[in-house]
Structure formats: structure tokens, C-alpha cells
Design brief:
Subcellular location (chain B): Cell membrane
Keywords (chain B): Cell membrane, Membrane, Transmembrane, Transmembrane helix, Transport
Radius of gyration of chain A: 21 Å
Family (chain B): Belongs to the binding-protein-dependent transport system permease family.
Distance between the termini of chain A: 60 Å
Membrane topology (chain B): Multi-pass membrane protein
Strand order of the largest sheet of chain A: 7-8-9-3-10-11-13-12
Protein name (chain B): ABC transporter permease
Order of helices and strands of chain B: HHHHHHHHHHHH
CATH topology of one domain in chain B: MetI-like fold
Oligomer: heterodimer
Shape of chain A: globular
Largest interface: A-B, 29 and 22 residues
Chain lengths: 345, 309
């Protein structure tokens, strides 16, 4: 309330500037689900940064905490049952978790935005798609109906929806799966967000459509220099798009590396298992390698390394001491006692 | 759309025929002498008896009686009562009264029911939620004649807030207010619960999560996105309920002495006036079918996924 307060513009809108190129900084984040059966620790001390124009893929099985991480950043976790006991999520240096709700709401859309796995259920069935895209401009920019609809048409054209002008009044169920996901993308990029989170954007689609959607996302990310967080369980999907990959297991980051380095030589047995389980044409006739066992129950995460019951390399130390995420090679982090041996293997 | 409506109207014909035949057969099957009691305490004269039997073809077998009735019906003739008054004239007097009562009851159940459903759906498990849960349970459990008589006794006689009975053949809104509240109270329970369940379900839906992540206010995400979807089944229920209420409420009309269609049918059954029963029920069947069609068309307007093409 002082006269020197110059961070605010005339319309009292808060400006967000990346600090040293860092858009988003997640620091030691914990998320728990308090249920009738007990407390499930979905995220167990996760830290990472997202830089301007960077594509970060978060990789993991179901229940690894990758979607919960995205929802925590977006602020759309159901609280309760979800609880965030500690941690920080900073957007341009400002902690989203301690920000007043109204200020945080205004970041959703113009600053951070998200697309979801199932575009059919994620779009409102009773409103036309153009109306749903235009809503972004009407709510955040106070634009009138016809101008906002013009913007919606422009965006639908940008995401390559054929005959956008005619289809702007159509309903979600009148589009194919790929087109619906394009509409979700149009809605998410409407206000030029600095960060786009894509939670399994292609999982519900055909393989050919998957590739189209991924190349659209890549194109938009480069065009707008967005920070992209790509959440997936499919290593094949991320290879072309991501700059860096963070691998999650049982609520922790177990490996983080540049995409090429990780594909060339994973530094964690879990990542190696994932890579080996990708079907390849030159392995025709051979049995596909799979990681044995199941991900742990998040209410009873095994002591030591959470992956030890499924790990072929597990030693006694893995069952007692939890490996910290540490730098095992320049620019490479791994949470494995034997990371160096895994890389060399 | 046009062909859909025509198809639906054509489908009504067998339903009307079937329904009227069932009613006709049931009235036909009633035990006892249909002419008895038409002449007060004394037995009817043989001449009156013969005329009565001839008028309603009572000496013919059931299919012939029904066939003649349907032929008249096709000409728009609902028949005449035993007092030689056309059934259509009787209905013309009573339908507006029942229509007014039904409309008032529907407005009450819609307003209170949706409001209660929304408030309890948004604040699940709160004080209001429990209060509405218990009070709707009470309303659903108590028979309508108990509610009607209690309302009449306490709100009408003791407190004097409302007229106790209807005294005119064309009652005012004020006179019909208490009966409408009684009639609507049961549906309030259903509407509020249906609204609450649907809203709770939709608040958890993916598109509401999308709405929140679009940066919409909670008010807009819940009040527009979730509510718009939750209203679809509620509006459908209210439409069907309106159709049922148009059929008259025998008990409520009886308690409050309302000259509506329910009371008319009730009296006609008691005095074995077959023509009135069949005529009125035929009319009600048609009303119900038309309301059903309108509700289905409304459903298509509310939910773009439903197509009548």
C-alpha cells in the first residue's frame, strides 16, 4: 500500500516475470490423500524446475504421482481428501500455494494452463465448443460475445480444425477424438499462457492421431516459447517433443536427464525397465521384457528404495537405505545406489 | 424433428385405444346394476330403465359398446353423463381449476426444490443438508391426506393464514395456495433430492475440473457449468410431474373441496357414472401423452446430445 509500489499496473493486474529463465519451481512438494483407510502419500518430496521454452516430460506408471503433481501445480486437487503438508510451487518466484485464492484463480488460463487425457468428458457437453473457448476471453479479458467468438474461430483455425467458422457452434460430441483434443488445446493456449501442462494428452487417441497431436503441441510450444510439462506413461510419445525427462516412481523423482542421454543410457533400473518394455520391430518373435510385480501401495511404501521389490539389481542396502536423488553424471540425476553401474551397463 | 413429432402422435393412437378399452372394460366389469340408484330411494321406472339401457347400449356385448364409444370419440364426442350433460362441458368447467392448481404446485416444487437441492449439493454434509435430508424424508413418509388435513387444521383453522376450503367454482390463486403447497410438498422432496444428487455428481465431473483450470470463479464453474447439466434430469422430472398433476389430485381436491378433475372422477366412480369416468380418463390419457411428448422435445433442447432426427 506504499506509494513506491510499482509492481502493479494500472488495472491492478499482477505481472509475472520469469526469474533467470525459471518459470516454475516445484520444491520439496508433498501431497497426501487422507482417506478412510489411511494416509496415502502420493507425492513424497518432489523438486524440479521448468525453464522458459523448455519441454519437460514427467514419466511414470499409474499411481506414480505424475498426474497429482500436475493437479497440485494447477490447484485443482480435491482438498480434502488431498492435503499438501509441505512444499512450494513457485510461478515466476511467487508461491502459488500461499497466494490468495482469487489471485491464484487469475493465473489459471493466462499464466498456467492445462489439457487433460479425455477430451470428451473434459469438455462441457451442453455448450458449443466455440462458446467454451470464447469463455476464456470473456472471463479473463472481459471481451464481448462476438469478439470472443471471433477469437475462438481464430484459435480453432490455429489448431487446424477444418471449417472452423462453420463448426464453432457445434457441440463436443459432434467431433472426433483428435478434433476434441485440438479444441482442448485451443482453449488452453487461448490466453497465451507461459506454462502449459498436458496430462496424458494422447493416451485416449489412435496412434496416428497421437502423432498429429504431439507435433501440434511441439509446434505451438516452439511458436509461443511456452514451458511445457508433458505427463505421460508412454516413452515413445515423449522422445521427439521433450527436452528433459523426469521419471517418477511411487511419488518420488527417481531420474532426471536430457532426453537423448536418458534414452542412450538410463541411470536408474526402473527407467531401464521402462525402455526395455517398449516393443521394437527388430525384436520380432522375442518375448517382450516387462517389469515384474506391481507399483507399491502408497499407504505402505517399502522402506529403503521404493523400487527394491521389483528391481533385479536390489542389494541389502536397497532394502534399508533410501537413495537420494544425486548428480551421477553432468546434468544427470538418479536416485539409485548403483546408478553408475546402471549407466555403464 | 417434424417427422419425429408425427411419428410420436401416430404412436399415441394405439395407446389411447388400449387405455380407453381397459377403463371401459373395468367399468363394464363393475358388479351390480348400473341403473340402480339413479332414481333416489325408489326403484327406477321400467320406461327410464329401458331408455337408460338403450342410451348406453347396456344390452349389447362389451366389444359393441366399446366400438360405438370409440366411433363417437373419433368424432370428438366424449359422451354424456347420466344426467344428460355432455362430459366435455363438465371437463371444460374443471380442467382450468386443476390446471391452475397443478401449475401452482409445480412452481412451488420447482422453486423450493431446486433451491434446496443446489444449497445442499454445494455444501454436502452441512447443517442445511441434514435438515433437508430429514425433512424430505418426513415429507415422503407421511401420506398426503395426513399432510393435507394437518395443513388445513394448523395453517388454515388455527393460524388463519390461508382459506380452509375453496368456496368458488373458479377459485382464486390465494384460495388454491395452501392446496398447492400440500400438493407440491411431496414433489419438493423428490426435486430437491434429484437436484442434489445430480449436482454432487457433476461437481466431480471432468468438465467442472476443466472449468476450474480455465480460471473461472467457483460461482461460474458450479453455477453455470455444473448446474446447467444437473438441471436436465430435474426439468424432465418436473415435466412428467406436471403431467401427473394435471390428472387431478383426488385426495387433495377432496380435502380442500376443490372442484377439479380429480374430484370429478372420484364422484363419477362412486355414483357409477360410467360415461363420465371413461370420458374423463380418456381426456387425461391424451393430456398425459401430450405432456410426455413435450417433455421429450424439451429434453432435446436442453441436451444437445439427444437428437430427434
Amino acid at each position: 500500500m506504499t506509494v513506491q509500489d510499482t509492481t502493479r499496473t494500472d488495472d491492478a493486474r499482477v505481472r509475472y516475470e520469469p526469474q533467470d529463465g525459471v518459470l516454475l519451481e516445484v520444491e520439496d512438494l508433498f501431497v497426501e490423500f487422507h482417506t478412510a483407510d489411511g494416509i496415502a502419500t502420493a507425492i513424497n518430496g518432489v523438486s524440479f524446475e521448468l525453464h522458459q521454452g523448455e519441454s519437460l516430460a514427467i514419466l511414470g506408471e499409474s499411481g506414480s504421482g505424475k498426474s497429482v503433481t500436475a493437479q497440485a501445480i494447477m490447484g485443482i486437487l480435491d482438498m480434502p481428501p488431498a492435503v499438501i503438508p509441505s512444499g512450494h510451487i513457485r510461478y515466476c518466484g511467487q508461491d502459488l500455494l500461499t497466494m490468495p485464492e482469487e489471485q491464484r484463480r487469475k493465473t489459471r488460463g493466462p499464466e498456467v494452463s492445462m489439457i487433460f487425457q479425455d477430451a470428451l468428458s473434459s469438455l462441457n457437453p451442453v455448450f458449443p465448443v466455440g462458446w467454451q473457448i470464447a469463455e476464456m476471453f470473456r472471463v479473463h479479458r472481459g471481451m464481448n460475445k462476438s469478439d470472443a467468438l471471433q477469437q475462438a474461430v481464430r484459435l480453432m483455425e490455429r489448431v487446424q480444425i477444418p471449417a472452423a467458422r462453420e463448426r464453432v457452434k457445434a457441440y463436443p460430441h459432434q467431433f472426433s477424438g483428435g478434433m476434441r483434443q485440438r479444441i482442448m488445446i485451443a482453449m488452453a493456449i487461448a490466453l497465451d499462457p507461459a506454462v502449459l501442462i498436458a496430462d496424458e494428452p494422447t493416451t485416449a487417441l489412435d496412434v496416428t492421431v497421437q502423432a498429429q497431436i504431439m507435433s501440434l503441441l511441439e509446434e505451438l510450444q516452439e511458436e509461443r516459447q511456452m514451458g511445457l510439462i508433458l505427463i505421460t506413461h508412454d516413452l515413445g510419445v515423449v522422445a521427439d517433443v521433450a527436452d528433459r525427462i523426469a521419471v517418477m516412481y511411487a511419488g518420488r523423482l527417481v531420474e532426471k536427464a536430457d532426453v537423448d542421454a536418458l534414452y542412450a543410457s538410463p541411470a536408474h533400473p526402473y527407467t531401464r525397465g521402462l525402455l526395455e518394455s517398449i516393443p521394437r520391430l527388430d525384436q520380432k518373435g522375442q518375448t517382450l521384457a516387462a517389469i515384474g510385480g506391481l507399483p507399491p501401495n502408497l499407504m505402505r511404501i517399502p522402506p529403503g528404495c521404493a523400487f527394491n521389490p521389483r528391481c533385479r539389481m536390489a542389494q541389502d542396502v536397497c532394502r534399508t537405505d533410501r537413495p537420494e536423488l544425486r548428480e551421477v553424471a553432468p546434468g544427470r540425476l538418479s536416485a539409485c545406489h548403483f546408478a553408475e553401474e546402471v549407466i555403464d551397463a | 424433428m417434424g417427422t419425429y413429432i408425427i411419428r410420436r402422435i401416430l404412436q399415441m393412437i394405439p395407446v389411447i385405444l388400449g387405455a380407453t378399452f381397459l377403463i371401459f372394460a373395468m367399468v363394464f366389469a363393475l358388479p351390480g346394476d348400473p341403473v340402480a340408484g339413479k332414481c333416489g330411494e325408489r326403484p327406477c321406472s321400467p320406461a327410464y330403465r329401458a331408455a337408460y339401457i338403450q342410451k348406453y347400449n347396456l344390452d349389447k356385448p362389451l366389444p359393441v359398446q366399446y366400438g360405438k364409444y370409440v366411433l363417437n370419440l373419433a368424432k370428438g364426442d366424449l359422451g354424456t353423463t347420466s344426467n344428460n350433460i355432455p362430459v366435455a362441458d363438465q371437463l371444460k368447467l374443471r380442467v382450468p381449476v386443476t390446471g391452475k392448481l397443478a401449475l401452482m404446485a409445480v412452481l412451488i416444487e420447482t422453486g423450493i426444490g431446486i433451491l434446496a437441492g443446489v444449497l445442499t449439493g454445494i455444501r454436502r454434509g452441512g447443517f442445511l443438508d441434514n435438515l433437508v435430508l430429514v425433512s424430505t424424508l418426513v415429507l415422503i413418509s407421511i401420506p398426503i391426506f395426513v399432510i393435507g388435513n394437518l395443513a388445513q387444521l394448523y395453517l388454515g383453522t388455527r393460524l388463519g393464514w390461508f382459506p380452509v376450503t375453496v368456496t368458488s367454482s373458479n377459485p382464486s390463486v390465494y384460495q388454491l395456495l395452501l392446496p398447492a403447497i400440500v400438493l407440491g410438498s411431496l414433489s419438493v422432496a423428490y426435486v430437491s433430492r434429484l437436484m442434489r444428487t445430480n449436482l454432487v455428481e457433476n461437481l466431480r465431473s471432468d468438465y467442472v475440473r476443466t472449468a476450474i483450470s480455465k480460471g473461472l470463479t467457483k460461482r461460474r464453474a458450479y453455477g453455470l457449468h455444473a448446474l446447467r447439466n444437473s438441471l436436465i434430469p430435474v426439468v424432465t422430472f418436473i415435466g412428467f410431474d406436471f403431467g401427473a398433476l394435471l390428472g387431478g389430485a383426488v385426495v387433495t381436491e377432496g380435502i380442500f373441496n376443490i372442484p377439479g378433475i380429480g374430484g370429478y372422477v372420484f364422484r363419477a366412480i362412486r355414483v357409477r357414472d360410467g360415461a363420465s369416468v371413461v370420458g374423463a380418463v380418456t381426456f387425461l390419457v391424451i393430456v398425459y401423452l401430450v405432456v410426455n411428448l413435450l417433455v421429450d422435445l424439451l429434453y432435446g433442447l436442453l441436451d444437445p446430445r439427444i437428437s430427434h432426427e
